[in-house]
Write a structure and sequence with these properties.
With 150 residues, this protein is mostly beta strands. It has one domain: Nucleoplasmin core domain (Jelly Rolls, Sandwich). 5% of the residues lie in helices and 41% in strands. It contains one helix and ten strands, in the order E-E-E-E-E-E-E-E-H-E-E. The strands form three sheets. A four-stranded antiparallel sheet has the order 3-10-5-8, with no helix packed on it. Strands 4-9-6-7 form a four-stranded antiparallel sheet, with no helix packed on it. A two-stranded antiparallel sheet has the order 1-2. A hairpin with an 8-residue loop joins strand 6 and strand 7. The radius of gyration is 18 Å and the shape is elongated.
Length: 150
Amino acid sequence: MSITRFSGPMISGPQFYSDGTRNQNTGFAVLSQGTTLGTALTTANFYVPPNSQIVQFNVDALTAWNTQTSALLSIGTDSLGTAYGSSIPLTTTTSRFNPVLTTTILTLMANVGNTTTVALAVAQTGTAATVGATFVTMLYVQKLGTGEVQ
């Protein structure tokens, strides 16, 4: 299977600049990155292009973490960060979690500026888990800059 790469923002739709003032029925492509976290890999990074808009995070419980007290996922701009979400529980069997998005988080997600690293980290308390797997998907839109209209 081959891969095709585009260098940046991808807009699709049939009527690009049809009225001379704005795009009609065109839009930016939603992209995704995903990774599996588990007992052997409790941190990971995603990288997005500058000025991207983060749309959503899906946290899928593949196998509940069996830590003695808690296993909590944080999503931020560095390994200790919580800019995009914190205290997401991984010890339950709920299929999918979405971080609680406050207005502060949504403002940060609207345009990442030059902060292009999105860091995932699992913090465990009590005896470390011997079983646990979580798949995290980040949906984002690559854009050219602030105030961009599609």
